[in-house]
């Protein structure tokens, strides 16, 4: 395009110079008319080439899956810690919680929760069913179904 | 009345407590007397025992105190959020954005406030950005002043040459050929064009750089923002904005760079060439390209902003509803009392939303930094050209003042390209920031 614009400017400048040089006569009118057509040709000639040009809209970008995985991993760690804190507050010490989650999907999804209560120490008094109570707390914190909890004692 | 009667009357009063109560009925107040019977001791004891038993029994009603006791205090929450923010920020690479910041001019860098994009994000997260506003205004004024000082010598030169040309035209012999007049005009015009075009070229280049910078910013910032939106559960919103952002950064900006800017340059060149000689008439070409430009800009703006407005209204609501519905569905199936119990990773989500908003805001600052300097140059130079045209009109050839006026009109096209692109970017990034906030 730069070449095109420079050629237009150059042709017009030459035309002005010719106009200055030419004396007023019958021939000068014809020369002016022909030169005007010539300028028009220079202007219009490259336009079909511009119209054939293509503009690609490019590909859509993809999400930053590393970032999504990173946040998912933090969520997994936070959920595990939160569950352990809740269990300790309820009087169940030394309960091991392991989450398996699907992180490479748009939403962080918990698959299974492995509750290892083999070394559990119950510090609260009261006649309670330890297994049921732990499962209830885990379900309340993590919002999973009972089928997703794998309890080992 | 006899003494006996008085005594009995007093006795009646002491035995029976007369309680006067007022009752309001249908807006009328009327006194009502009530007689209260004395309560036996046994009944009193029974009443108090029931009350005590009730309060004691409240202690043994099973509640979720055990879980709420495990709830986090305000300090814990703040600590967790700070940790989560630091961990998430550590996983984001701001290297490319730092390069863009580094390519800003020194005056523009003062607008942004720092030469590091990550540092600006942290400043926003800490809430320190408000203290930068006085520096921001000072930087803007300094930039303005710098541009005026750059433009002033050029305008002075243009006005000086034009005035000289006017004097020469006045002093030449009247009987001289018209060719001398044309030559004087040609030389003067060429000088004015060369001087004007140096400034115009510099401004067009800076606008081109600003458009390229905006495109690069979009290609870097939007993937981060939409990924954060996806990570917090806004999948529908992200899916809605993904094509809009792709069209903006790849399609619209390409049209601006490859079609609109060349149209502007064509009108500029035709304006310059058309004023060289009265026999070289290209003003209708200029008019055609100007109309083409206006139609293209109007269609692009209308279609893009209309699409974005419609999608933006519904995107966040859908995600927010589905997240809240999921919470309600699950919590109703779990045998608990009470309301919301944190899953633990909601703080992670909240910190991701904070980071998303901070990055979006920092991106807006960067946009302003990239666009402000070229806009100021356009405004100052455009006003200067108008002033020069006004000064030279009574003195010199009309063609020179007409040329300056035409260039000034062309600059309005350039300004609309830059401001329009910045506005679309601004609206899109604002919508992305606002949409993610409604997910909780």
- Which quaternary structure do these chains form? heterodimer
| CA-atom Rg of chain B in angstroms | 39 Å
Number of strands of chain B: 2
Please provide the count of β strands of chain A: 5
User: What is the N-to-C succession of helices and strands of chain B?
Assistant: HEEHHHHHHHHHHHH
Cα gyration radius of chain A (Å):
40 Å
- β-strand percent of chain A reads 15-25%
Characterise this structure.
The complex is a heterodimer of chains A (153) and B (440). With 153 residues, chain A is an alpha+beta fold. Chain A has two domains: 2-52; 65-152, 2-Layer Sandwich (GMP Synthetase, Chain A, domain 3), CATH 3.30.300.30. Chain A contains five helices and five strands. Chain A has helices spanning 2-21, 26-44, 47-52, 65-89, 130-142, and strands at residues 92-93, 96-102, 109-116, 121-122, 149-152. In chain A, strand 2 and strand 3 form a beta hairpin. In chain A, helix 1 packs antiparallel against helix 2 (26-44) and helix 4 (65-89) runs antiparallel to helix 5. The mean pLDDT of chain A is 80. Chain B is mainly alpha-helical and 440 residues long. Chain B folds into two domains: 3-60, no CATH class; 78-437, no CATH class. Helix content of chain B is 80%, strand content 4%. Chain B contains 13 helices and two strands, in the order αββαααααααααααα. Chain B has helices spanning 3-15, 41-60, 65-68, 74-90, 95-102, 106-112, 117-126, 133-171, 178-231, 235-274, 283-333, 346-392, 398-437; strands at residues 17-25, 28-36. Chain B has a two-stranded antiparallel ribbon with strand order 1-2. In chain B, helix 9 packs antiparallel against helix 10, helix 10 (235-274) runs antiparallel to helix 13 and helix 12 (346-392) packs antiparallel against helix 13 (398-437). Chain B is elongated, with a radius of gyration of 39 Å. The model of chain B is unreliable at 1-9, 12-35, 61-71 and 329-341 (pLDDT under 50). At the A-B interface, helix 1, helix 2, helix 4 and helix 5 of A face helix 4, helix 9, helix 10, helix 11 and helix 12 of B.
